[in-house]
Amino acid sequence: MLAEIGQFTLAFSMVVSLLLTLIPLYGYYTKNDSLMLTARPLAYLQVIFMLTSFLILVALFVIQDFSVTYVWRNSNSVLPIRYRVSATWGAHEGSMLLWITIQAVWTAMVAYFSKSLKQAQIARVLSVLGIISLGFATFVFFMSNPFLRTIPMPMDGNDLNPLLQDIGLIFHPPILYMGYVGLSVPFAISIAALIGGNINETWIRWSRPWTNAAWAFLTLGIVLGSWWAYYELGWGGWWFWDPVENASFLPWLAAIALIHVQAVSERRNAFRGWTVLLAIIAFSLSVLGTFLVRSGILTSVHAFAADPTRGVFVLILLAIYAGGALFLYGLRANKLRSVGGFQLSSRETLLLANSIIFITACFMVLLGTLFPLIFESMGKKISIGPPYFGTMFFTMMVPMVVLLPLGVFYKWQKDDINRVLSQLLMPLIIATALTIASWFYFDKLNIKATLGLFAAYWVFIAAVTFIKQSKKLTRGLWGMQIAHIGVAFYLFGVSMTEHTDFEIDALMHPGEIKVVKAYSVEFKGVKKEKIENYDAFVGHFVVSEGNSQVAEMNPQKRIYPRRGNPMTEAAIDAGFTRDIYISLGEQINNQGGWAVRIYIKPFIRWMWGGGILMMLGAFFASTDRRYFRHAKKLKQQNIEAYLHS
Amino acid sequence: MTPTRKKRLLAVVLILIGVGIASAIFLTAFKENILFYKSPSEIASGDYPKARNFRVGGMVKKGSIIKSTSSLEVKFMVTDYGKDIEIHYTGLLPDLFRDDQGVIAIGKLADSGVFMAEEILAKHDENYMPPEVAASLKDKKDYK
User: Fold this and answer.
1) Nearest to A17 by CA among A185, A130, A140, A139
2) Within this chain, do residues B62 and B7 fall inside the same structural domain, yes or no?
3) Does residue B106 form part of some domain?
4) Do B124 and A392 touch (CB under 8 A)?
5) Quick one: which of A33, A587, A609, A629 has the fewest CB in 10 Å?
6) pLDDT band at A48 (very low <50, low <70, confident <90, very high)
7) Would the pLDDT of B140 be above 90?
């Protein structure tokens, strides 16, 4: 019964999104206010139905209704309750339902926080968001409906993939989707502005906090995903340049370019067309990412069983959204001509350079990700090794970090390069001195790591100098400095982790000691235990430095009886300056010998910490008073206009 | 030339230089990191890159896994149900590595005809089959 209600509310929300697409837009073209006024209520109605569907699916997992196909495929009777909840979005159907539910949530938030927009504006924005909801809701309802039943009902479920039985799965997908789908808001705002044929600073000012918020969620989602892969996959890596990871990285890169260009187009009448185009690109890449992940068309270490036919539908949606948007852009591009002038030596130029660097990097990641598909159509099967991405990305980021502090210190419109350089002279000297000191302290780093550390110091000290020089910083400027300090932390962490880490694969017998860098790791043996819904071989390791014990570590090899699959659960001793990471392979012989992998990962936490700072910076910037003051004024105007009419 | 024209020319030159550098980086990085995928049958017919890494995929042949008891060395056969290839690997194996499982190995083919793998990939999900492996198995008629 409950599943049928879920089915019903899903169908209903699909109908509501159809109405949301048609009525307000029709109202806009016929200048009919009462039709346009339906936009907000429809957006609220849509989120109510969508959330109901979603919560019903969660409930079906909690009460374990195995007559529902999606439920029995992805859970079973012994699955702990927290994973029953997260199993809701553990596979394709539920994950897509989460996608459209979050889309509906964003739409409702736009409806709620848009009091400052004119009726004709908000009607268009919500209609465009309605088109997106409609496309994906149709996809979920007809092609990946999670509420379908299996008759007769199976006795027990198939279990959730053991890798997904983890705290990471509870948080990573919803937050990542918040970011992914959130990019539909700047997209919708741009399209709505294009429909109206006019994009002014109000539009852009209004879309900035949304872009920042979506990007911040995306950042957090990617950080969580990286951290999850690091401890859960048992390989000790934090980024694999895998298609599924790239799928989230592409819109992230495009959104960085968007955020920086918006800074120009909001204040100065320049780059308006580029802003609109970047908003279109960013969301199109989100949809492309959804396609790549859901179709399983690319070989991916993260890929789960997928059905390529479903991919075709998402591809059609991509063609409609991106194609339609670009077509509209082509029609209206001449109206977006910029009038504001600026000199070559100005902040505008540097922000333009930022967007070009990030879009180029984005394009190169896209090429590397899609090349296997292009080759396949020519009958050759290839893949692109991670070093391609590594080399390319490193090179792209060199000009980025060199220019970053300049962009912060440069003034709008026109500035003297000598003035900027004289201000940055001290940071440059300090950064160089610190780099040289680090090179000796960390025992002769290689060239890439040295450059990385220099970049980290350069960006960090420049940001601190800027904070110290300014008498009073707005929240926007604080957000920017926090995010840039995040970049510095990330650079430091990644340089240390990538270039000074240490790894061994070894056969170890009980009592054996391996010396790993400054640590000695003693293997005490393996015990078999029964925990929750799995059996585990639990290894016992004692790590010491000199004569003092640092940590006792217990990596596990788990067996989940329902599927019979083994799974590696690494043990990690996390630290401020290093992680010790031990994972257990398999038993090699009957003298108690096991395959063991030991890593030392210096400063790996700093990398994720950097990501968190970037996220905080973006959130903080989106609460800048300017947006609210401006919104309040416009809201007042709207009310007055309404009263006079 | 007027100052505006000069500025535009400068911008065009800068963009061209940028595009040039970017393409050069792209081409070198790309050329060095492209990995071909070959099935055991293709390797048997001599169609594989010599002296550089490539990927081979197929099913782990039933009963072919031989593990050393004194080191992390493992030997096994990968089959596409047409031809087999012997693979040697030293290190930790993925969790889902076992008989009749689709795997991809990355490494070089030695003169002895043995594939020396540096990395073995098996998937997270027992129902998942790497698309290349699925395609090369489909090519074989006796695949059920």
Assistant:
1) A130
2) no
3) yes
4) no
5) A629
6) very high
7) no
**pLDDT single digits (tens) A111-160:** 999 888 888 999 999 999 999 999 999 999 998 999 999 888 888 888 88
Check if the interface score ipTM surpasses 0.90. Answer: no
Residue of A nearest to B32 (CA): A388
pLDDT of residue B143: 41
Statement: residue A45 has pLDDT above 90: yes
Q: How many helices (H) and strands (E) in chain B?
A: 3, 7
CA–CA separation, A262 and A627 (whole Å) = 13
Q: Do B30 and A305 touch (CB under 8 A)?
A: no
Residues A581/A575, Cβ–Cβ less than 8 Å: no
pLDDT tens-digit series, residues A413-453: 888 889 999 999 999 999 999 999 999 998 878 999 999 99
Minimal Cβ distance to A507: which of B53, B72, B132 = B72
CA A384 to centroid of chain Cα atoms: 22
> Looking at the predicted structure, is the pLDDT value of residue A187 above 70?
yes
Question: In this predicted model, what pLDDT tens digit does every residue of A263-278 receive, in sequence order?
Answer: 998 887 788 889 999 9
Taking an 8 Å cut-off on Cβ atoms, the answer to whether A595 and B72 are in contact is: yes
- Could you please report the per-residue DSSP string of A531-542? ETTEEEEEEEEE
Residue A402 confidence (pLDDT) above 70: yes
Q: Which of B28, B35, B124 sits opposite A383 (nearest CB)?
A: B35
Q: What is the pTM of this model?
A: 0.93
Q: Say which CATH number the domain at B81 has.
A: 2.40.50.140
Structural domain tally of chain B? 2
Domain residues for the domain of B19 are 1-34
Question: Is B144 among the domain residues?
Answer: no
Give yes or no: residues B80 and B17 share one domain. Answer: no
Q: Do B132 and A381 touch (CB under 8 A)?
A: yes
Count of alpha carbons within 13 angstroms of residue A83, beta-carbon side: 19
CATH 1.20.120 fits A1-165, yes or no: yes
Residues B42 and B11 in one domain: no
CB contacts of A507 in chain B (<8 Å) are 70-72
C-alpha span between B143 and A216 (Å, rounded): 48
Q: Using an 8 Å CB-CB cutoff, list chain A residues near B96.
A: 565-566
In the three-class reduction of DSSP (H, G, I as helix; E, B as strand; rest coil), residue B84 is classed as strand
Q: Is beta strand B84-90 parallel, antiparallel or unpaired with respect to B115-121? A: parallel
Q: Is A150 helix (H, G, I), strand (E, B) or coil?
A: coil
Mean pLDDT (chain A, rounded): 90
B20 and B44 together in one domain = no
Cβ distance B125 to A305 less than 8 Å, yes or no, reads yes
- Residue B141: which pLDDT band, with cuts at 50, 70 and 90? very low
Same-domain status, B81 and B52: yes
Chain B residues lying within 8 Å of A589, measured CB to CB = 69-70
Residue of B nearest to A306 (CA): B128
A563 vs B96: CB contact, 8 Å cut-off? no
Residue B37 touches chain A, beta carbons under 8 Å: yes
